[in-house]
Amino acid sequence: MNKWLLFFIVCLCGVNLLGQQVPFYNHYLINPFVYNPAFTGASDYINASFVRNQRYSSFGSTAINNYLTVEGPVSKGNMGLGLIVAYQNQGIQQQLMSSLNYSYRLKINDNHNIRFGVSAGVLDNRIDYNQINAQDISDPYLTGLRPTAPVFDMNVGLVYNWKNLKIGVSVPQIIGAKVKYAKERSRGYYQLERHYMMSLEYDFHAGDKVIIRPNAIMRYMPNVPFQYDVTLMTIYNNMLWASATYKSDYAVQFNAGIRVWDFLRIGYSYELLTGSMKAYSTGTNHEIFLGFSFNGKREKEIQVVENPVIIIDESAVKQRDSVQKLKDELESRLKEIMEDQAQKERLQRERDSLTNLSKVTKTDTVKPKGKPQEVIPIAKGSYFMNLDKSDSPDGYYVITGVFSSKQNAEHALSRCKGEYPDTYLMINKANNYFYVVILYSLDQELATATYKEYKVKKKQKVWILNYRI
Predict the structure, then answer these.
(1) How far apart are CA 362 and CA 366, in angstroms?
(2) Residues 6+ apart with CB under 8 A from 306
(3) pLDDT tens digits for range 218-249
(4) What DSSP string describes 349-395?
């Protein structure tokens, strides 16, 4: 068999069509972590995703790309950890990739932050010799090839966030390792080229339930035509999504998906070839997506109070003791100057005032008038403001979630708006977290009734916050 012909086949199978070595995936808007390690742990949840991608079935040897990812936040969301396992089968070549991902968030202020990410792992490249149609199977060059060629690989990336804007840059295969199949150094290898990728994304909120998300991703590799994708995605109530994508000189892609039971997402995409590939392939190009999300870090800061609890902090105890001591001293002085009636009356008034003060500071609870009610502790160390920077008033707040990310808080807000139209967000300036409020009232009975109704109907976390400035 001609040596250079085999070498050409090995190199061709080592890359995707259009010259891209990094596989094309269609659900990167749902799981951007697969292309850019800086997205590792960027949400408030632990996410697991599985994708099966199938292309070019009409060539007689379908290209299969599968991946499994798991990622989530650690250290209060300032860092993220993740794992990717991917398998590709393209012609005579197979590749198994596994890598660990790490990201770090640099917070500039409430609206600006930058995430840096890196992934490192192994690419195990294999050749299926049973699929090689060779004229001379005893060719010493063919028999001298290794069946497997593992290499070390690294990817780097960063993401800049400003309110609803995300700008990402990543460099897959930054090392540029050589995949060597032949025992001789000069033959039987191909190069893992660096890919330069950039993404732009912005969320437009059309009302309380609809998000319109345009996205663009650009890919560049030396000596290969520049490639870009342009996508328009619509998300309804954080439950349904649909998108359309144009891939330059390649295809038009359509995606649709649904969220089930709050933790499961199912998506499907279909590609209709339109570019130069259309003349060579008429097969079905499709991708299936399954995603699982679980509660991660910092879901709440104030615990749900199921039973009456009396909270006495150390400062209140000290104040009560000092008041009691002063009260005793006044009583002693009062006995000594009983003959002075005017002074006696003045001291009596001071004594009564201090007695009332000691009763107020004995506990940090508010007992409403009327029939006995459940005692709800006052929130400690909090300073709440509305999003328009005005102070939140005293009263009872029924809370369904606390988030450090405004975007995640708005998603939770949109889910509650349907049944609780008065739902809104407020921010705790003590920790810069966003609170989802389904009811504010000065009436404790109304707050308790709403709390019980939500808990029975939704079977989700909810609690009452008693706030006093």
Answers:
(1) 11
(2) none
(3) 999 888 888 999 999 999 988 999 999 999 88
(4) HHHHHHHHHHHHTT-SB---SSS-----BBPSS--EEETTSPBPPSE
